[in-house]
Design brief:
Blueprint: H1 8-17, H2 22-29, H3 45-55, E1 60-64, H4 69-84, E2 88-92, H5 105-113, E3 118-122, H6 129-137, E4 141-145, E5 159-161, H7 175-189, H8 195-212, H9 219-232, H10 238-246, H11 255-272, H12 276-283, H13 287-322, E6 330-335, H14 342-353, E7 357-362, E8 367-373, H15 380-385, E9 393-396, E10 400-406, H16 410-420, E11 434-435, H17 443-449, E12 464-476, E13 482-488, E14 498-502, H18 509-512, E15 518-530, E16 533-547
Parallel strand pairs: 1-2, 1-3, 3-4, 4-5, 6-7, 11-12, 14-16
Antiparallel strand pairs: 7-8, 8-10, 9-10, 12-13, 12-15, 13-14, 15-16
Length: 549
């Protein structure tokens, strides 16, 4: 029996994730390449490979990606992979503001201009019925590789490689992983010794797509993310290396580093300008060019942060002044709201109010373009299906979606959505932490938690709640802004001291608690290494005073 499973706290965390058998626990705690599913199981992948191989020597393939990190990384993997296998390809990332979401007829026209007779999509295309029909009428074949939810009708493509179709064992792949599996399968078909090499070559960029697209870090996503993060430190992609150097990330990379430091820089340029610059960064083999492009992306990211703060402030004003949070779905719009940033704002609002949120921009043609973010238990696309008669276009996932609606239909769209939408799930605060005793908090537990990394969607970092006594307190940091507490078991005279740190709480919590106080703390547990010493450390998120001594 796995020794970790003798720890009742570890068992509780695993159950919270949905892992209840010893076999499943072993697979989760000790991921390996053996857990990856065979690419051959993907819907239509053999049809896709056959058509691609037919084009290998005589045709140019137009690779159509998407402007988010998943779409950019998927385009990178297909471009580099197919070129390595002897294909001639032209990669294309649409401009969010000029081209819009998904593949459109103007992209087909561009493919024709470039002399391409085959379009290969990645991270888009599953809903592009009209565009694929248009491409067919122009004599262009289309292969779709995507991971978005299919609707009732599918495009008349040569092949649709999508884990939601057919009987693939794990549906929650991102576009970058679908692209990687396509490269692996084609390598197998042409008997080149590239299938395993492709996994090693692209796993770091695939991990970037997985983490950025917030797909569940379970099953093979977990395997790819874990080993991809390790590879990222020694990446062969000069563009990715330039980003890591620019933001001065040191030591082992975490999913948090990628999600909040790397991915936003790749996303920002597409939100404000042209996402093709992010693809240029990843594709370049010139280190100096990579450094300059990384600097450019960093500037766009700072501008994105300012734009986001401004739109969020305006949206919050509308919500408060019009009591929009009383509706089952929070919907607001403005003019001159950057359509590339509204999705982030919707996510912030959904997190705050624990309700689905749609944030939209009204353009000069009277069309509202927006992005939606949801909460667990409320499926966005299924609910948008219920009001599709009012929408010009829409698509996405259960937790994120995009849509367009004419201003003249906006009121009816809102009213009907509120009437037809599913009930909004209620959230219980008690479910957000695991209550444990102080005697269970030790270095062994902190070290065991490292086995759960990488943390992310469906595998969030565990938050604990424990009753403790304050042994001592101190203010720390250059600006004396942080609080350090030495904590002991309130029910034992022989308790080990565990250090707790509360960032930016020196002036509120520092005034609230004194030595000897018994308090509840909620926290994440980390391994702290300092001057050669290794110890457990609580990263305190909240505290509650129970008594004073």
């Amino acid at each position: 029996m796995n020794s970790l499973l003798k720890n009742k706290v570890i068992v509780k965390i695993l159950k919270n994730i949905g892992i209840k058998s010893t076999e499943a626990a072993d697979a989760f705690l000790f991921p390996s390449y053996d857990q990856l599913h065979d690419p051959a199981l993907l819907n239509d992948i053999n049809k896709a490979a056959d058509r691609l191989l037919k084009a290998r020597d005589t045709e140019t393939i137009f690779i159509h990606g998407d402007y988010d990190v998943d779409g950019i990384t998927a385009t990178y993997i297909l471009t580099k992979g197919l070129r390595a296998l002897g294909f001639k390809v032209i990669p294309f990332i649409p401009n969010r503001h000029l081209d819009g979401y998904d593949i459109r007829s103007k992209s087909v026209d561009l493919a024709l201009e470039k002399g391409c007779s085959l379009i290969l999509t990645c991270d888009c295309g599953t809903s592009a019925l009209d565009t694929v029909t248009y491409a067919n009428s122009k004599g262009i074949d289309v292969i779709i590789t995507d991971h978005h939810l299919p609707k009732s009708s599918l495009p008349a493509a040569v092949a649709i490689v999508n884990p939601h179709l057919g009987s693939y064992p794990f549906e929650d792949l991102c576009g970058a992983v679908v692209a990687l599996k396509v490269i692996q399968y084609i390598s197998r078909k042409i008997n080149l010794d590239f299938e395993e090499l492709a996994l090693d070559k692209f796993i770091d960029v695939a991990a970037l797509g997985i983490i950025a697209d917030v797909v569940p870090l379970l099953d093979e996503n977990r395997v790819l993310a874990k080993f991809g993060l390790r590879k990222m430190r020694k990446t062969s992609c000069k563009g990715l290396a330039a980003i890591l150097n620019a933001i001065k990330l040191e030591g082992n990379l975490s999913a948090h580093d990628v999600a909040f430091k790397v991915a936003p820089r790749l996303n920002a340029v597409g939100r404000l300008d042209a996402a093709s610059k992010a693809l240029d960064l990843l594709l370049t083999s010139n280190e100096e060019e990579a450094k300059e492009l990384a600097k450019t992306l960093d500037k766009f990211n700072r501008t994105r942060q300012e734009t986001q703060a401004d739109i969020l402030m305006q949206a919050e004003f509308l919500i408060n002044s019009q009591q929009l949070d009383k509706n089952p779905v929070i919907i607001c719009y403005g003019t001159n709201w950057n359509s590339g940033v509204v999705g982030i704002v919707a996510g912030k609002i959904a997190d705050k109010y624990k309700k689905p949120c749609i944030v939209m921009n009204l353009n000069d043609e009277g069309i509202l373009h927006g992005s939606a973010r949801s909460v667990e238990g409320f499926h966005l696309v299924n609910n948008l299906d219920k009001v599709k008669e009012y929408l010009i276009s829409y698509g996405g996932h259960s937790l994120a979606a995009g849509m367009s609606v004419a201003k003249r239909n906006f009121s009816e769209f809102k009213r009907t959505l509120f009437e037809r939408c599913d009930p909004i799930p209620e959230f219980a605060e008690k479910d957000s932490f695991i209550e444990i005793d102080m005697k269970d908090v030790n270095l062994s537990l902190a070290m065991s938690l490292l086995k759960f990394e990488p943390f992310g969607e469906k595998n969030e970092k565990p938050v604990f709640k424990t009753k403790v006594r304050v042994s001592s307190k101190a203010i720390m940091g250059k600006l004396q802004a942080h609080l350090r507490l030495d904590l002991i078991d309130p029910d034992s005279d022989y308790s080990d001291v565990i250090s707790g740190v509360a960032w930016r709480h020196a002036f509120d919590w520092g005034m609230l608690v004194d030595e000897g106080d018994v308090i509840y703390v909620t926290y994440t547990l980390e391994v702290n290494e300092y001057n050669g010493n290794v110890s457990p450390q609580m990263m305190i998120q909240s505290l509650e005073l129970l008594s004073e001594s």
